[in-house]
Amino acid sequence: MNMLSQQTCEACKADAPKVSDEELALLIKEIPDWVQVSEDSILKLRRVYSFKNYQQAVDFTNKVAGIAEQENHHPDILLEWGRVTVTWWSHKIKGLHKNDFIMAAKTDELARVKS
Question: What integer pLDDT is reported at residue 2 of this predicted model?
Answer without folding.
Answer: 59
